[in-house]
């Protein structure tokens, strides 16, 4: 089996998409011989993108240049049809604009994504022009029509593909992501939380506003004011406001790059030594940190939004509070679960959930069976 891996990211890049690129490559390499088919930006692409976005911003709009086929051609080099020679199948990783602009190739395509464009409008992508919305939906439709099978990471994404894009039900499958940590570093030796000790909460994300950073700080402030000694460990944010980083109950660890050994080890240490993940995100497709939390037996407290329901099951490995919940709401929920012992019970269940489905070995087995089926059907048709 020869698999063409169509991606903008090098197979060895552990940073891209929070490490999802790297972990997918590892699993696909077990299925067959991998050939990277790079999506190359033109030399001036970054400046062109910033210029276009700035011009639209002056008019009061946001825009995603790559969704416009003319802008796309200015930003990216053409992926030559010859690149797909000797491939039995093409695995397209998070590259909807490229799939939409790709010339017809006589190879089966399996398309991986964590969301549809329609689902992202006014959720992740705000204030887009009507033209850009239309272009994005058209591009997504083209990408999905060219794909033989579409693999999404949540039921939320699948529902949007079925309802918004009218994708045929037998063409789309849900397979959850795993933890982007090496299996050798995932150990099951979590020390149960004790009410007489400090509660160690972890906030893990790169977007302070979208991930609900202020809500997390408010929750931990309330916990400390209401009898639960708590420390909030903040990792992933490149630059944290000093008014937050200097709070007595906050420990700031900076941005952690998984390509860097020291940063990677720091992340592993934080996951090992925390009692729960507090991530009140207000918009989410499939946060890898949820799978990583379950791998390290960390219950998760988050919002009920996007694709989170495939990763957090209430009472099993955490709780999803309604959108609009305050830091005090999160604080009260955490305090209740800490005092009644449920926090430690969910710690055990979280690890069980990781073992059953939130791991990359499970993902690899599901994808292997799918790829085998696609290739056999394609050969039979040929």
Descriptors for this entry?
globular, 382 residues, six-stranded parallel beta sheet, alpha/beta
Structure description:
With 382 residues, this protein is an alpha/beta fold. It has 14 helices and 12 strands. It has helices spanning 20-31, 45-58, 69-75, 96-101, 117-120, 130-146, 155-164, 213-225, 242-245, 261-273, 288-295, 327-339, 342-356, 360-381, and strands spanning 2-7, 33-38, 89-93, 109-113, 149-152, 172-174, 199-204, 230-235, 250-254, 276-279, 300-303, 318-321. The strands form 2 sheets. It has a 6-stranded parallel sheet with strand order 2-1-3-4-5-6, with helices on both faces. The protein has a 6-stranded parallel sheet with strand order 9-8-7-10-11-12, with helices on both faces. Helix 1 crosses helix 14, helix 8 (213-225) packs across helix 12 and helix 11 (288-295) crosses helix 13 (342-356). The radius of gyration is 22 Å and the shape is globular. The model has no long low-confidence stretch (mean pLDDT 96).
Fold topology:
Layout (H helix, E strand, L loop, with lengths): L1 E6 L12 H12 L1 E6 L6 H14 L10 H7 L13 E5 L2 H6 L7 E5 L3 H4 L9 H17 L2 E4 L2 H10 L7 E3 L24 E6 L8 H13 L4 E6 L6 H4 L4 E5 L6 H13 L2 E4 L8 H8 L4 E4 L14 E4 L5 H13 L2 H15 L3 H22 L1
Parallel strand pairs: 1-2, 1-3, 3-4, 4-5, 5-6, 7-8, 7-10, 8-9, 10-11, 11-12
Helix pairs in contact: 1-14, 8-12, 11-13
Tell me the total number of β-strands. 12
Distance separating the two termini: 17 Å
Strand order of the largest sheet: 2-1-3-4-5-6
Class per helix and strand makeup: alpha/beta
Give helix % range. 40-55%
Strand content: 15-25%
User: In DSSP terms, counting alpha (H) and pi (I) runs of 4 or more, how many helices?
Assistant: 14
Computed Rg: 22 Å
Poorly predicted spans: none
Largest sheet: 6 strands, parallel
Return the string of H and E elements: EHEHHEHEHHEHEEHEHEHEHEEHHH
The global form is: globular
Q: How would you state the average pLDDT, rounded? A: 96
